[in-house]
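CHAIN AND CONFORMATION:

***
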Amino acid sequence: GVDLVPGRLFGDYELSATARGKSGALDLRTLSGALRIDGRGGWTEHGRIFFDGRVEGPAEIVGRLPNVMDGIAYPTDSPTVAEIRLR
């Protein structure tokens, strides 16, 4: 794993998954914490995972995500917000 900020907790999150036959849906939301992560996605009957989300938090953490999660996390116009796209 990658330790972005050693010893620092990001927050509490809830991930809900609903299966529909061989496909399903995912819903991720922040319950509390300085790093807010929210998004929706799922998986197809062929096993392809997809997710669209948003991360908001301190610039020193969020700004590192595009480098750590190359091809999944993308910077925005704000240094405190990154978009997550998994296809």
User: Anything to note?
Assistant: The CA atoms of residues 20 and 36 lie 28 Å apart. The two ends are 21 Å apart (CA to CA). The first strand starts at residue 12 and ends at 20. Helices lie at 59-62, 65-68.
